[in-house]
Design goal:
Oligomer: single chain
Radius of gyration: 21 Å
Distance between the termini: 26 Å
Number of strands: 0
Number of helices: 19
Number of domains: 1
Strand content: under 5%
Order of helices and strands: HHHHHHHHHHHHHHHHHHH
CATH topology: Growth Hormone, Chain: A
CATH architecture: Up-down Bundle
CATH superfamily: MFS general substrate transporter like domains
């Protein structure tokens, strides 16, 4: 099969080197340029959809607008995070048993699209507690569908894109997705369109994007491989005992959750300083998306060279941002127009570096026939940690945001020493 010239040209422009097969079979290597572009395109649409329906920001605002209580708003992030991670231990055996695992990702993407469409319908027909129950239930469906995508994606990426080129695929997709969300943030901030209408249109667009992503991904060429017999969920946990590198990776990843948990406390500093405009929906979406736009592609390319180094650099950036937030507030500068937005921007750069680094490191580290199991075990453990983070955050917040942010900064610094002990994986 001959690769179309335009696919080869774009592929060569987006990766550092096309030398070598990167661990692919001859048949997969021949089709790598087209598969690379399908990965980048499908993942871009999925990333845009994620930004348009962000539970931390967009859905929280929507539930408040519909008159749902703070109880339902508080459920959104735990449902989204735990629902996307915890089921993977049980879905991984079924994914492993499939000859072509791309179909698991296609099904998960379609499920997310259907759930997003349901959220739009619920928002148009329900208010108050009814809207809260319906949207939380649909978010749970979306999260479980996402878990299917997550547990299958690393395996499909490893089979269809060569090592040293995987970070370019995920980084390109994340940057393209962030660019689109930047536009959404500017429209939110402009006030040109009624915010409620704009949010519902954005969620509807997210539904279409997920359906389109699944359709594009279905065209990816994946060599059929005999499906392995599914390993029972509890048996998969034995990987933790047998692979000390996986344990160390999970320790590091657990400490690096600090970059994801800290933003609300930075917003709290701004609110206490009287910076009322800082916590507006559009400004928050903008800070996160610009950081992703500017950093993800670069992080992805760096991860292809050393994903271990990316994790350490991200941790250092995160610790610096968090400690700077406390220092600026103690100096009386957190109420200025630049201080905390800059801190949040740097923190989001660190957060996206963590995401890029951990995905690529896990794909490169895991044995080819066990990628789904490694992903599932890692994500399930982190899901449990994130569930516990709600209790931790509540207890830490009693001492104030300064103490909480310094604890998160210490976690990020500690992760550097854990990550340093990981093996450096070379192509």
């Amino acid at each position: 099969m001959t690769t179309p010239d335009f696919e080869e040209t774009v592929f060569e422009a987006l990766v550092d080197s096309t030398d070598g097969k990167g661990g692919l079979s001859d048949a997969q290597a021949e089709r790598e340029p087209g598969n690379f572009l399908r990965h980048a395109g499908s993942l871009s649409m999925s990333k845009i959809a994620d930004g348009l329906i962000d539970p931390k920001l967009v859905l929280s605002w929507l539930l408040d607008h519909l008159g749902a209580s703070a109880f339902f708003v508080g459920l959104l992030v735990p449902i989204r995070e735990a629902g996307a991670l915890l089921p993977q231990l049980f879905t991984a055996p079924h994914v492993q048993a499939m000859d072509r695992r791309k179909w698991a990702w296609v099904a998960g993407s379609a499920g997310q699209g259907a759930a997003a469409a349901g959220i739009v319908l619920a928002s148009l027909t329900l208010t108050g507690a009814g809207a809260g129950v319906a949207i939380c239930a649909l978010l749970a469906v979306l999260a479980v569908s996402r878990s299917i995508c997550s547990v299958s994606y690393s395996d499909v990426l490893g089979k269809t894109v060569g090592q040293s080129r995987r970070g370019a695929a995920t980084g390109t997709a994340t940057s393209l997705g962030a660019g689109a969300v930047v536009i959404f943030a500017f429209i939110l901030m402009s006030g040109l369109v009624d915010r409620a209408i704009l949010v519902l249109v954005a969620i509807g667009l997210a539904a279409l994007l997920w359906l389109g992503a699944g359709l594009l991904f279905s065209g990816l060429w994946e060599e059929a491989a005999p499906g392995a017999k599914g390993t029972p969920a509890c048996s998969q946990l034995s990987i933790l005992r047998s692979d000390p590198q996986l344990r160390r990776f999970i320790y590091a990843r657990g400490l690096l959750t600090s970059t994801a948990l800290a933003p609300p406390y930075i917003v709290l500093l701004g609110a206490q300083a009287g910076q009322g405009g800082f916590d507006r929906l559009g400004a928050l979406v903008l800070a996160s998306s610009i950081a992703s736009l500017l950093s993800s592609w670069i992080w992805g390319r760096l991860a292809d060279r050393s994903s271990r180094s990316v994790l350490m650099l991200s941790a250092l950036a995160g610790a610096t941002a968090l400690s700077s937030a406390v220092a600026l507030d103690l100096a009386g500068m957190s109420g200025t127009g630049w201080a905390l937005p800059l801190v949040l921007f740097v923190l989001m750069i660190a957060y996206h570096g963590v995401r890029q680094g951990r995905v690529i490191y896990l794909v490169d580290m895991a044995p080819e026939d066990s990628r789904a199991a490694y992903t599932a075990v890692s994500n399930t453990v982190i899901g449990l940690l994130l569930l516990g983070s709600g209790i931790f955050g509540a207890l830490a917040s009693l001492a104030g945001p300064h103490v909480t942010l310094m604890i998160f900064a210490a976690m990020a610094l500690a992760s550097i020493f854990i990550t340093k002990g990981l093996d450096e994986i070379k192509a």
